[in-house]
Design goal:
heterodimer; A: mainly alpha; 23 helices; 2 strands; B: 74% helix; 0% strand; flat
Chain lengths: 503, 179
């Protein structure tokens, strides 16, 4: 216990690490707040610059950006009705009406405090649940890992996209990109077309920066003419009475946030929307109707999306399966730093776990501090015209892709994926599943082969064992449910089974 | 039933291209090890590409049922695509990045990035040349300070003798401190 506490406090006591967490949180808030700059984009571009660093330093920066970024989006959602990040979409629904009434300062104060409460609860659950989950995870069979990874890709594809088919296509495409290069088990060439440069595969950083940085910048070019609106903000710190009033709701929505965050593949954006929906259902008589500036409508998504951060770290650290796109990137970074997230990480290097929990907690506190101060500077930065912002994003993307291997080929890959991502976004394909697919390809591939070899190459034995293990059966059932639920067969099945109760 | 949305210009073509790409992947996956064993290196790629083929087939079929936005044949469709999906500003930026990345290695980070920022900001902002020049210079200085000096990222040096300049600055500072 004392040891855990010691590792927990590393970043709190080391001035350099403290500064890095602070810098990360600060830049996360601003990046998250600027419309068109998402947390995923920021983490993916910045991560490429930290590869030569010590792993602790790199983690401090990333954790800070993640925590700050998830919160930062709420600022512009309230002030300008433009969610700075997808996780703040629900925040805009009631936050902006509050700003229109001239209560922007109060709304920002409340959302900051609630984000911190949500974040705190998420980290608490992480600290308590992760060691348990990782012990449980030791009993997982290779097929369970495979099913969990497939579930993660499916969830991203089905919940956030235009159609399941497009999400599935993107996920499978990502998995194939992830297999390019020499097969890690047999060293056979896959999709290399005889090019030796492809033996090590396509740099996942290049893919990521292309899909999240370049493609988003190209999409933003369409909105170049939009002018930023100016806002006035006054006193922002909320009163104790107000915090107490919304505490019960915030506890419920934090719970939703942690659970959604912990599910592989789903993150803050979905958690926030579900929490908003929950708040709407449980609030019997709000002072102000929802959608017109109800504070409940602000509290719910803001607690949930920050609670989801802690939640997302649970599958990432215990199973090596990302909770959302940002944790997918962090997993990639951990691999490059020579760490293998999964149950063994918790057992072999528990200090890494407590170190990360400590960083998250520190970032959460710093978020509260930065969130309640510096609003004036903030409004200036957010008004930065896109004409300057977009060239800068592209510059950083090129530099970031180049910096990983000092190779210009990575820049070309990045550009290629940037263009592809632009068209995918234009036509309603999600880019999130692609990156999850790239990260999870190796895990699915290896676990599938391990599973089928241990069954003596017999498909029937594989399925028999799958349905006779309770865990595998549950996972399989969920995977099938998602697929069936989204297919045109679903209404038919519902009519047959539930006897005509269709809506 | 919701009213079906209109098909975006080029969406049908993109769906078909996605199908072609999927089929290409499927063929290449088969080439790895054929149907030799369930645990072969080609098994997982074959499964993934099969999923891609099925998913893109569904998308192509769904696309066919969507009403098209532009009436009037291929010419009108091409014009709609040009207008809403790849307007000149997007094409110009793709060209900017291509030229930038081509120059990056030879010319070095500082000059090529400056040219890129200058061109891109001037093109987007359409303000005075002086404004673009100052903004490009300041933002490049900020990027350079953060990434090259603080993060110590290795960037292509090109024609600028960076190391000599840095050594000179260091020398200046250590000299100024009187050490």
């Amino acid at each position: 216990m004392m040891e855990a506490l010691q590792y927990f406090a590393i970043a709190w006591t080391d001035p350099k690490l403290l500064l890095l967490v602070a810098a990360g949180t600060m830049s996360g808030i601003y990046v998250g707040a600027i419309p068109g700059l998402s947390v995923t984009m920021a983490v993916s571009i910045l991560i490429s610059f930290t590869f030569s660093w010590d792993v602790n330093e790199a983690l401090c920066l990333m954790v800070g950006i993640y925590m700050g970024g998830v919160y930062g989006g709420s600022r512009t959602a309230i002030l300008l009705n433009i969610p700075g990040a997808p996780s703040a979409i629900a925040t805009a629904l009631d936050g902006y009406p509050l700003a229109l009434k001239g209560e922007a300062g109060q709304a920002i104060g409340l959302s900051t405090t609630m984000s911190a409460i949500g974040g705190f609860l998420g980290i608490l659950v992480l600290a308590v649940a992760a060691p348990v989950v990782s012990e449980f995870a030791l009993t997982f069979q290779p097929r369970d890992y495979m099913l969990l990874a497939i579930l993660g890709i499916l969830l991203v594809g089905s919940l956030s996209g235009e159609s399941l088919a497009k999400g599935v296509w993107a996920g499978a495409f990502g998995m194939l990109i992830g297999t390019v290069g020499l097969d890690p088990l047999t060293a056979e060439e896959r999709f290399t077309f005889g090019v030796t440069e492809l033996w090590n595969g396509i740099s996942f950083i290049a893919v990521m920066i292309g899909l999240f940085g370049v493609s988003e910048a190209l999409v933003q070019l369409h909105h170049i003419g939009k002018e930023a609106v100016k806002q006035k903000v006054g006193k922002i710190a909320p009163s104790w009475a107000m915090i107490r009033k919304y505490l019960p709701l915030s506890l419920q929505t934090s719970g939703i946030g942690v659970i959604i965050g912990a599910l592989p593949g789903t993150g803050g954006d979905i958690a926030a929307l579900l929490a908003y929906d929950h708040a709407k259902r449980v609030t019997r008589d709000p002072e102000v109707p929802f959608g017109e500036g109800a504070k409940e409508g602000l509290v719910a998504p803001e607690t949930a999306n920050n609670a989801a951060v802690g939640g997302a770290f649970i599958p990432m650290l215990t199973l090596g399966i990302p909770g959302d796109a940002v944790t997918a990137i962090i997993i990639g970074a951990l691999y490059i730093h020579g760490l293998n997230p999964g149950p063994m990480l918790m057992i072999d290097r528990p200090h890494m776990f407590w170190f990360m929990v400590g960083n998250l907690m520190l970032a959460n506190i710093l978020m509260l501090v930065f969130g309640l101060t510096g609003i004036k500077v903030f409004t200036k930065i957010v008004e930065c015209p896109r004409a300057i912002l977009i060239p800068l994003i592209l510059l950083l993307s090129v530099v970031g892709a180049y910096a990983v291997n000092n190779a210009i080929t990575d820049v070309y890959w990045m550009l290629g994926f940037g263009l592809l991502g632009y068209f995918m976004k234009t036509y309603g394909y999600q880019v999130g599943p692609v990156i999850l697919g790239v990260i999870l390809a190796r895990l699915i591939d290896e676990n599938w082969r391990r599973a089928i070899i241990s069954e003596g190459e017999s498909l029937s034995a594989f399925f028999v064992n799958m349905v006779s293990s309770p865990l595998s059966l549950v996972l399989l059932a969920v995977v099938l449910l998602i697929l069936v639920n989204q297919s045109p067969l679903w209404p038919v099945i519902r009519r047959r089974v539930l006897g005509g109760e269709t809506t | 039933m919701q009213t079906p949305r209109k098909k975006r210009p080029g969406e049908g073509t993109f769906g078909i291209l996605a199908l072609v790409l999927s089929l290409g992947f499927a063929w290449q996956s088969y080439e790895i090890a054929g149907f030799s064993a369930l645990s072969s290196p080609g098994a997982f790629p074959m499964a993934a590409s099969a999923i891609m083929v099925v998913a893109s087939l569904i998308i192509v079929l769904k696309n066919r049922r969507l009403p098209t936005l532009a009436e009037g044949g291929f010419g009108a469709a091409a014009r709609a695509f040009w207008r809403s999906v790849s307007p000149p500003v997007v094409l110009a930026f793709i060209a900017f990045i291509l030229v930038y990345s081509a120059l990056l290695d030879g010319l070095g980070f500082l000059p090529s990035s400056f040219l890129f920022l200058l061109a891109a900001i001037h093109y987007l902002h359409r303000g005075s040349a002086r404004f673009s020049f100052i903004v490009a210079l300041l933002s490049l200085a900020a990027v350079y300070a953060v990434f090259r000096l603080i993060f110590t990222v290795v960037l292509p040096e090109g024609i600028v003798p960076e190391r000599e300049i840095m050594a000179w600055i260091e020398h200046l500072f250590s000299g100024g401190a009187g050490r």
